[in-house]
Fold these 2 entries.
Entry 1:
Amino acid sequence: MNNLSRNNPIALVVGCTGFIGSHVVEKLLDKNIQVIGVDDFSSGDINNLENAQKNRHFYFIRSSIAEVSPLELPRLDYAFFCIGESASSPDSLIGRFFEVTHKFGPKLELLSSINLYDKDVKGESFLIQSEKVFAQYAAKFNLNARVVRLSTIFGPRMIFNEKDQLHRLLFNFLNDKKDQNPLDFNTRAIFIDDAVELLIKAVMHGGSSQKIFDGSSSSPISLTEVDQILEDPLWYENIEFTPTKLPGIASPNLLKTQKQLLWKSKTPLVKALKETVAFFKTHPDRIPTFSERREENKTEHVSGRPIFGPPQKSSLSNFKQEEGQKENILIEKKNNFQSILNIGFALIAFGCIFYFLIYPFFNLVKNVWVIRNDLILAQNLSEKGEYDQASTQIGDAKEKIKRVGEFDNFLTVISKVVPFAGFYKLQQSGDLLVEIVDGANQALDGAKGVGSLLSEISGENKQQDSSLYDQTYMHLSTADDKFSLASAILDSFKESSYLPGFFKNNLVSWKSTVDDTRNLLSSALGLTEILRSMANHSNREDFLFVVFDENNARDGGGKVLAIADLTFSKGIVSSIDSQSALDFDNTLTGLSISAPTELQNDLGLANLTLENSFYSPDFPTTAKNLIAFYKLKTGISASGVVAIDIRALSNLLQPLGPVDLKNNETIDNTNLVQQVIMSKDAQLSSSILKTVLQRLFLVPNEPWNKVVSVLGSSLKSKDALIYLSDGESFSYLTSANWDGILPRQTLNSSGKHAEFLGYFETNLNQNESEYFVTRKFNLKTNIANDWSVTHKLSIDYANQSQDTSFPGGVFNGKIRIYLPSGSSLQKVLWKGQEVTSDVGSFSDFGRSGYDYKLTLSPKEEGVLEFDYQDAKPLIFNNGKVNLSLQIVKQPGLSPDPFDIVIDYPQGLVEDLHPKDKAIYQDIHLDSDHSLNFEFSNQ
């Protein structure tokens, strides 16, 4: 392994000869990632590595991970643990896995099973223990680790699992045996290519707040359809067959996985089955024979029955014998009139209960499933702009709601006879469905409205309706209210002890769907308000769009790369002009504005430039300065500024599609960030920005709701910021926290104690080294017996640049910490050495602040520590005090992990942690955070 290059990523795959592990190896190699495979052939097959061994970037270690010696590597970026359940001692295997890898600080991944969500997980004891041990070691070594739980996987090189219905169907087909078992089953299976794509996306995902990802098909697949495809794959391929969408409940993390990783199982079912069958037809030695499987399974049973074949004769005779005994008993009791009468009454009573309660209840459960499926389908249709079909789907859901209402009416009657609290909860489920379906209908009308607004702005719709903004806003606002109420009802089910577990779990599974819809509605409301401000004017209005490079940081975000002027004339986009920041600055001949003091001291600039205009941590201040600066240059007075970093610009290309440049180069969401960082072409960002704006404002048929979702996420993470000079619109931005304001000082009072922490950094070298810098924050707050409050902020830095060559290199940063006014600095350490005398102090935006300049060479690590104390102790009011902590993220900063520990004395009790002496919070700087803690002085 001496030939491993430090310039390309390196991955370790434990279990590389297995079905899934071998496919992971091949996919990583395709991505130009160097791979080290480890396996002892206990469950894998060396033939699975036939293609990988031809690649010079693959290195194989034939050994158990438990026996692998410490690795001497130039780097290790990713590590996969793909050992199956046939292995033993997960504690020792996973322990050694972490011991071998932890010193490199890679991203780690454990392959697990979605079966762990089942109620009966006795057969998954290995995976349960593995996940537990994996989490313990990840916490011990403080590593970025995640678990991926997969459903059934099939494809070339698969290992057949006789307990799985799909595997058994494929097994019988390959052995020319018709499956004698009924095919009225569904499967959530996914093809191996989709599974591997998820595994790699999950391990490469930047944040680690979502530590469990689920992988399964979006909706169940009928085994009957699978059987039909296997019989005639060419015919089904020619008709471009798609499986029938069936209702089903997603696993707890599937929707989050699809949203965060932009992943879905996308391989067509016919194609997946053809490739699977083709592999085994060309490798007949890999097909277990039918007779072998029957012989092997004589001793393996599921629920007391053989895995293959009909029920045992002994079971049938026992059944008949039991029936005979029952018949004799009835004959013996035939003369007992009272017994017969009792049985008759019991049957009548059971019939009444079944007809009036059990049947309606299960009908309710069925409708809950089907309604959710209707709404998901309606949402998918709405995303494609097929509003009429979506409306029909919601109409179907409304019809099912009527059936739920019939059950509610019955509960109303019976609850007066039997005052049982569970009946009220069941009635609430009916209310929940009504609110959700009504909300979906309003959301659909709002979606139509936004589409119409964009058509007006683009000039496509000549019949402008001045009331369209109000109507659209009303529909979206009503939908948001209804989904908010639905969310509150769902929250109430969590604590309910009256509902059956499976029914409660089914309703609670709606929570993620409802919350995702609320997030989309919130973003759509914001977009409507922004469009109103931009286009609802009779005269000319100009708005500036700016792209900044977060990897060349400034306090306000980063170095500006490009600027565009979006001009509205009578509510319609009339022009979009863009240019690079470098070209803009080069035309400032005869116009010079002295640079602010911080730019003169930090970057040595005499005059202000557009490139370095994002120097203020308060975005409204930056935007106003930019508007004034632009007016001096062009004479145009802009009415607002929209700023996005290159990460947000890249995310927008996911729904909008790739950009084809004049040099025949294609830029999409997978390569934009790298291209911008590596490119020496100052026009690149300008060209991409102009194309994106044209697609957003001049092509109304673009998937705007997906765009809204991406923009909403970018605004929340402060990868995008908006300033509007219109006071009413800006107030809306402030309420949504989209304005990038640096919060001003809040005075402490009796019963209230406000903490504040803002972290900002400027890249003094003006290179791209920040792309390679990682940070981990740890804030430890101590409340003493005299109620004084002290803090220790530790920031672990690591420069993962391999050398000083572009785009990496030495990171030379100026760190600025904003604290509550009056905070006193006690001590500052850098790499264990006290540097308090080198720390500068300042007062800005009504807050105290401290700054320090640090240098980090390639492959170097260091810890910066700030010890400081609040100006005043806690002041109680009636024995209580609220301690609030507001953490402000720098725009464009990566979502680094942030741990918070609050120690407090024995005489103090925190309402949510009454038995503890410390509070621990694990967050990420993926957005601003506001935390509140209620203490009681006992």
Entry 2:
Amino acid sequence: MNRFNLSEWAISHRAFTGFVLVLLVAGGIFAYFMLEQREDPKFTFRVMVVKTLYPGATALEVEEQVTDRLEKKLQELPHLDYLRSYSKPGESVIFVTVKDAIPAKEVPNLWYLVRKKISDIAYTLPPGVLGPFYNDEFGDTYSLLYAVSGKDFSYAELKDYADSVRQQLLHVPDVEKADLLGVQDEKVYIEFSDKKISQMGLDPLAIMAALQAQNALKPAGTVFATGRDLPIRLTGTFHTLEDMAQLTVQVAGRTLHIDDFATVRRAYTDPAEFKMRFNGKNALGLGITMTRQGDVLALGAALAKTLTEVQENLPIGLDVEPVANQARVVNTAIGEFMRTFFEALAAVLVVSFLSLGWRAGSVVALTVPLVLAGTLLCLLLGGLELHRISLGALILALGLLVDDAMIAVEMMVRKLDEGWDKLNAATFAYTATAFPMLTGTLITVAGFLPVGLARSSSGEYTVAIFQVVGIALMLSWLGAVMFTPYLGMWLLKPSRHNATSHTFDSRFYQGLRHSVRLCLAHRNKVMAATAVLFALGIFTLSQLPQQFFPLSNRAELMVDVWLPEGSSIAHTEAAALRIEQVLAADKDIASYATYVGGGSPRFFLLIVQQLANANLAEIVVMTKDNAARERVKQRLQDLFANDLPEVRGRVMRLNVGPPVDYPVVFRVLGEDPSVLRNIAEKVAQILRANPHTVAVNDDWQERIPVLQLHIDQDKARALGVSNASVADTLEAHYRGLRVGQYRDGNKLTDIVWRAEPNLRTAAPDLADISIRTAQGKTVPLAQLAQIETQFEDGIRWRRDRFPAISVRADVVDGMLAPDVSAQLLTELEALKNQLPNGYRIETGGALEDAQLAQASILIWIPLVIVVTWLLLMLQLHNLSRTFLVFMTAPLGIIGAAFALKLFNAPFGFVALLGLIALAGMIMRNSVILVDQIEQDELAGLDTGTAIVESTVRRFRPILLTAAAAILAMIPLSRNDFFGPQAIAIMGGLTIATVLTLYFLPALYAAWFKVPRSKTGGGL
């Protein structure tokens, strides 16, 4: 019974095959325009932030009374990776990180468990604690970010206009959220002089109570009249600031107005908590978050159109300007990728036309868009998107998906040259090589399997490589056995040569036979030489610079400006303004956005977002191009080094891949903070001594000065003064106490009772603050307490409940962080051996993340081996031949290592993926060659002759497919992300192809003990 032949079926059902072909092309075009487009793949941040406030507590008290209690409970969380936290005066922040292996869909349930567990112990927290507050949207990224600014507009006016713009943008399709950033809330301040109040005999508590009672909004009952209910309304609440200033207060028989002893004014929150500036102007940010199903290019176009209409109604001088525009970035990136793609496509087609001729090359050329169209359609149906990784994977697949079509066409052409008719020639490839091709294709796909299965942030980020390449390669096999024969029937012509002409009798093929016979004759030397090359490849690979993920090619620079811990936000803003003056005069800069009191909102998925810190200003500098970016970076580094010694400045390019804060990190963990600081300082000295590190610092920073009040408790009790009353008085004097809310239309504005500005800024005046006694009199604070300046921790970091100091550094340009960290590990070894019991130094940063990412890949190598062996056994049905094919898998290391070294490319996570995939490509060619040898042996040839003749016959398709893959990698080798992977594949496949044609025959002959006399070794 004849076996089913898919190629024959496709040709015999031409109408159906043609219909499917047209449908596939139309579906691919439709899919291209419908696929979601974004800069980076969707990425689940497995981090939740738990923030708790404990006003008045020191960093140590916050750690002991709040942070430790919460962390102890959170350690019960299933799938917890680690807890990282910091405690500052009055504030606790815990970062809950779950394991990367947890599927993204299960993460929300874990965040629910976090809330539940903390709510179970909330009652155990000390009185006065506010929160906890949760942020499980830590990874939300603004697709577009705008600045609303105007030179002559107040913050209140900016907010009103920004609110109006926000409301209109919310109606744009695919807008999920629109947030206002940097809003300066208004407050009504009632500012007093405590000396004046004391002289007038006023009681501040009575005044605050009067303010609260007068402005209270409470139900006054309802008169239930016959047939109608009549609610009772009271007048007298504050409608204007004048009402507040004229409020009467009865004190000791006197009637006074508030403005007799205090000033009522409306102002913004002072001190501010977070401010935004754009191009040197005060601004409010408007961040747009896209729905998960949205297309950022369509969103950008829709927002631009809406903003054009909105700005026509805005007053002159009010600007809505883009700060970050992911739509523009994606459009540029896709344009670059498409150029790279067409360059790779051109390279593949050139190989096809030059090697196969016009007609046969046309068959391959037409098969490529069919496979790509099918791939795009599958991406759409599978809910995948076009982004940095999937587009790069398409280019990567381009060099591989023509292999099957080339093999099928080459065999069809050969059979036509031998005098076969078109139908038999077109269907012969399916009979002879379809299943070896399928096995080879599946082995190639299996080479990418670790990427698809990797349970890590890096794996989630790059999983599209496996998805896209897998889909493309499987469709390429289907296209080779269905559409390639169908197209060949139309385009190829029967050969005019005599059917008895011998295709492989040319001078070239005679020379090839001779060289293969020499390898078989000197098989031991060939295998020894290959072993030496392999050893050199392994050694070269170990000497290559290590890299986790490459830098982004975006033109932005992130500039962090850190002042000493405890610095005021006003001081931080002043430092930022000095830097802005420099930026404004730099012609290489297109724009800059400044964030004072915290970091930039997440406008790029992969940035490390800084949380609120009064001593931090972060500036996002948009340069005109990448060359300008490097010039600006150098100038800013010089500025920090020479002109701003009082700040710790850091200038960073954006990174690709899972976010890493500092590239070089060493964590010191233990129980005693004083011992930790001593060890951390020694670690920092070792880092500073290394010539490849810069900006060495630690995350505990400096100890901050505080004013310690030693209250004479005996005297205080005698006067009826308590610690609480002193604290309330001082809090009201300096920070202010909220005594109600002023209702102005739909706005609620806090009313704050505090001292006049000049009384809140002078530390020496603290001793003169009046403290009210139980007898209604006042005494200066100096009579009750001694004031002493002391130093305490401004911030205390922990990791898994252990105090932890992270010593961090950047690396000099030209060096890669894993290499520098590896050097430092050797230098730190002596210090590690001297550590007291219970103290340890851990490696963090890029080296730790790279090791975790590589481990998540390498753990699946055994599965790849098993799958590969299974596929080989299914095809070859012979353990020995399977072993021979498998032995060729690591040959790619030789050329890959030499190529990476030659082009000075780093070996990192992406290059590792290239090496693993390379093994599948090599075995794909090997299995076809070994299968051909077996077929020739079954046809009656002796083993030696079968080895030589099979190598000769398979030479052309092996060489053509390798050349197509290698040339397709050339454009991709210039890509920032895929460059190392492309270089590894180019170099590895080049050398491995040669070894497949010479080493594999020699190994086959040695394994099966083929006599040298049978191989023509005497030649």
